[in-house]
Amino acid sequence: MAFTLRGDDAVQELQPSPIPEPYWVGFSSSAAKLVNIPLNDNGYPQDESWLAVLAGNSLVTQSSQFSQPIATVYSGHQFGVWAGQLGDGRAILLGEVADQELQLKGAGKTRYSRMGDGRAVLRSSIREFLCSEAMYALGIPTSRALSVVGSDLPVLRETKETAAVCARLAPSFMRVGHFEHFAATQNIVRLKELADQLIDQHYPDCRSTQDPYLELFLKICERNARLVAQWQGVGFCHGVLNSDNISVLGLTIDYGPFGFLDYFQIDHICNHSDQGGRYAYHRQPQIMHWNMACLASAFIPLIELNHPQEESQELLTKALSQFPVVYGQAWQKLFRQKLGLVTEQADDIQLIERLLQAMHDSKVDFTTLFRGLAEINTEAPITEISMRNDFIDRDSMDQWFGDYIARLKSESSLDSKRKLNMNRVNPKYVLRNHLAQVAIEKAQEKDFSELAKLLQILESPFDEQAQYEEYASPPPPNLSAIEVSCSS
Ligand SMILES: Nc1ncnc2c1ncn2[C@@H]1O[C@H](COP(=O)(O)OP(=O)(O)OP(=O)(O)O)[C@@H](O)[C@H]1O
Ligand SMILES: [Mg+2]
Fold first, then answer.
1. Which pLDDT band, with edges at 50, 70 and 90, does 276 fall under?
2. Which of 14, 82, 90, 487 to mutate to test the pocket of ligand 1 (most atoms within 8 A of CB)?
3. Domain boundaries, the chain
């Protein structure tokens, strides 16, 4: 069941605004499977009425009808500051298909658009589309993207661009900001309805516990702690970790100025508009924790339904303190796996941190380095490890490789088996900015073939795809500094 709240204080019922002469830009057959849309041989819906629906031009397909689309209200903290009321200013929830909410981003103005035009540009819609599907293939919880539909409708940003609509899917698009909204407006009836809906639809196990709302809070924190650990593990920087962009299902949502690390820089800032580096790579865990603190504040009235005031705050504070614990465990587990370590030893963390420090100092490519570790032959001399040439301080790196090989030998697993396991957690292909950029520039010329090809490559990020070797490489120096901002 989709978002069930109705009424002016929670949603606006409205139709998407049509775009002129829509055309397919990209379509994910993998996401289509999730919602059982039959496809033709070209991988597009057999039922051609889907194009108009996913453009926001119609509500009717041959087999379904979306009877009452809505935009929802939420509030939130943006860059650490309370921003007051926000809401779906350009995303319209059409309804539900096969237990997934179907939402059109860029589908026109809503009551919550403030100064915005309700639109999204082709460039940012392609980035959201590709990254949603890439993250899914990496095994990272995320909203999915079904399609991008384009139009020649002009949209003004820094320059004149054209409009596009990205159709997204998720079991729920509910955010921390939804809770913050009803807490800030002291609308406790709504706050409770929201929490009850979330429990009934997505966290049913909480219902049978002594304290369902506290349990719900703990579960949301746990999911988001694990989520950030997974981001760190693939070098993903979200870019705008405002509380209105944090899912209460622990999904990655709102792909704006995100970026995957090319060379490893611990304090990398992917969003050009984030001048203070609030959302830099190394700050993501701490920022997610901060967002969970925002959620905790919003949960106070819910906990107070069953506990005195002071006790409620203590309970939430204690629950919140679990975040770094869960995050730390998830991070350590993941990075052990990335190094191919099966057992746990006390010095492992130091070994991982020494590697990351050396990668940072020498600006070593994150994805290719971790992928390359699987190739190490523990019986061969260190001088045969080609990656050692990527590091400035070769002597200290030789020391590291020596320690690493000794550590691997302390486990009895075969090199071949270790390689297989490592290649399941260290992707070969990630959505590097320069790759997305090529697909975008071609799409802007109405050539969508590169987009389709890139999607296909990113759908199997852990596989060797010999014919696409160049898509695994770091960007050439002239393309390494593409700037991405909040403009979308
Ligand atoms: N072009 C626009 N028109 C109307 N509202 C907008 C526009 N761009 C952003 N907003 C609104 O501004 C707020 C913050 O924007 P943000 O960039 O976080 O979200 P978004 O990218 O629009 O959407 P989402 O979080 O749903 O992926 C949201 O309330 C969003 O709906
Ligand atoms: Mg957003």
1. very high
2. 90
3. 11-170, 176-260+274-323, 340-422
Residue nearest to atom 22 of ligand 1 (CA): 90
Give the number of the atom of ligand 1 that is nearest the alpha carbon of residue 117.
Answer: 3
187 belongs to an annotated ligand binding site: no
Q: How far apart are CA 435 and CA 428, in angstroms?
A: 14
Residues within a 6 A CB radius of ligand 1: 86-91, 105, 112-113, 116-119, 240, 242, 244-245, 253-254, 256, 488
State the Cα–Cα distance between residues 250 and 429, nearest whole angstrom: 24
* Residue range 129-176, pLDDT digits in tens: 999 999 999 999 999 999 999 999 999 999 999 999 999 999 999 999
Q: Which residues pair with 77 in a beta bridge?
A: 82
Closest residue to atom 7 of ligand 1, CA basis: 116
Tell me whether residue 123 is annotated as binding: no
Query: Is position 388 annotated in a ligand binding site?
Result: no
For atom 27 of ligand 1, which residue has the closest CA?
Answer: 254
**1 pLDDT exceeds 90?**
no
Q: Identify any residues that bridge with 95 across adjacent strands, giving them in sequence order.
A: 102
